[in-house]
Design goal:
three-stranded parallel β-sheet, single chain, 14 helices
């Protein structure tokens, strides 16, 4: 299966083909949702605001810091290292009519303010019934921060920019409402030993997760099978930093035929989570680092049961492959021990929950993206969880994520989600 670069997706026939309206419609606030359970969303996004880097880089780099500029077409773009990145929003279309959605927005005033303003975000989380959130970067940085460092002429500028991004995330975003956000850093990708030092430093400051690449090789970096990343991964295990692998963090998305319509991309977007699970499993990273925690973000859950069956089947022929030797646990058992999975809107996942293991399934709302369930997350999720025993429903809604990311939910909220 071939991949297609994220920036090429918009050129595919039929992909988000809606024509951008002359005037964007931002719908009024919805009513506050009825809260059935607290929700911890393990996959949301923040759109990097224009002021993100102001005053955060060393003086010698102040003039080179990423900044937002107007472009001749009437849109806005990020200017960094002499290059323009016009994808400031990347499908941040929450609160817009579906018929207006295309591969945009191209201006900050075309987005719901909660996409990039933390105070407005809290209000939208409250409307949706989401108690806490893991927020990944958007197109400006790339899901694992690769656009801030790969190909940048001065590595010192790149490092300063990555550090500034993480400082802003910890202080201005998660730090503004520490009970409501789980701090997630982007990694330094150009030196695994320095990356490990950054993980330890950031863990000491309060970061609980890192948004690493599902597959570094398409980004021009060493693969996960080389051992190159072991210093970074050892630091994650040591500090209990969750390694989040967001689909698309390899800079590409699954694709089939070269002339397949855009629907194929939309349907298969989750596919890299399944590929990554197998890739990371057979890299034996979770064997070398048995306490590492890997969370597959925006990848779904329903496919996990079938993968487990396939792991058992292929395991019967291990003498042929020779990869999984002298390891006490089977591949399936390691998958169940070291990996967590993230469900968006999939009824079938709960039919096979006992097969997968209820303790390793979490939820997401994917705010503010097109796929997201805002402002109906509570209703969407309750349709599925109401069929489960209460204890299992609580695990999926928030207890698993609270344990995984070491993020407490107050007793009053657990007892009555209307009380936050």
């Amino acid at each position: 299966m071939a991949g297609i670069k994220l920036e090429e997706m918009e050129t595919r026939s039929g992909f988000m083909k809606g024509k951008k309206p002359e005037k964007v419609t931002l719908l009024p606030d919805p009513p506050r949702a009825k809260r059935h359970l607290p929700i911890i969303s393990t996959d949301d996004h923040l759109v990097e605001p224009p002021e993100m880097f102001e005053g955060r880089l060393p003086t010698k780099f102040a003039e080179q810091a990423p900044r937002v500029v107007e472009n001749p077409s009437g849109g806005q773009a990020w200017l960094y290292d002499g290059k323009l990145n016009p994808q400031i929003g990347l499908a941040a279309v929450a609160g817009r009519p579906i018929e207006e959605c295309s591969y945009e927005p191209v201006r900050f005033d075309e987005m719901r303010r909660a996409s990039f303003d933390v105070h407005a975000r809290i209000r939208d989380m409250d409307l949706d019934g989401v108690y806490a959130s893991v927020c990944f970067p958007s197109a400006m940085a790339g899901f694992c921060g690769h656009r801030l460092q790969l190909g940048v002429k001065d590595p010192a500028l790149a490092l300063a920019t990555v550090r500034a991004f993480n400082d802003w995330h910890l202080e201005a975003w998660a730090g503004a409402y520490p009970e409501r956000f789980i701090p997630c850093q982007i990694p330094w990708l150009l030196d695994p030993k320095l990356a490990a030092e950054e993980v330890r430093r950031n863990a000491a400051r309060g970061f609980k997760a890192i948004s690493f690449s599902e597959n570094p090789e398409p980004l021009g970096l060493p693969s996960i099978h080389t051992g190159y990343w072991d210093p970074l991964l050892a630091a994650c295990e040591e500090t209990d930093t969750v390694v989040c692998l967001h689909v698309g963090s390899s800079g590409s998305t699954p694709n089939t035929s070269s002339d397949a319509p855009g629907d194929c991309i939309g349907v298969l977007f989750f596919g890299y989570a399944m590929f990554s699970a197998v890739d990371w499993l057979y890299s034996k990273i979770p064997v070398r680092f048995p306490n590492i925690k890997i969370c597959l973000s925006e990848g779904g859950v329903g496919w996990v049961a079938g993968l487990m069956d396939r792991l058992d089947h292929v395991g019967k022929y291990q003498a042929i492959y020779g990869t999984w030797e002298n390891i006490p646990l089977t591949p399936r058992e390691v998958l169940q021990r070291n990996f967590w999975f993230c469900s968006l809107e999939e009824a079938s996942a709960y039919d096979v929950l006992s097969h997968i293991g209820v303790d390793h399934v979490t939820l997401e709302t994917d705010y503010p993206h097109l796929d997201g369930t805002w402002p109906d997350s509570q209703a969407v999720i309750w349709r599925h969880l109401s069929k489960l025993p209460r204890a299992d429903a609580e695990k999926v809604a928030w207890r698993n994520a609270a344990k995984l990311f070491r993020h407490a939910v107050p007793d009053r909220v657990a007892a009555d989600p209307e009380k936050w």
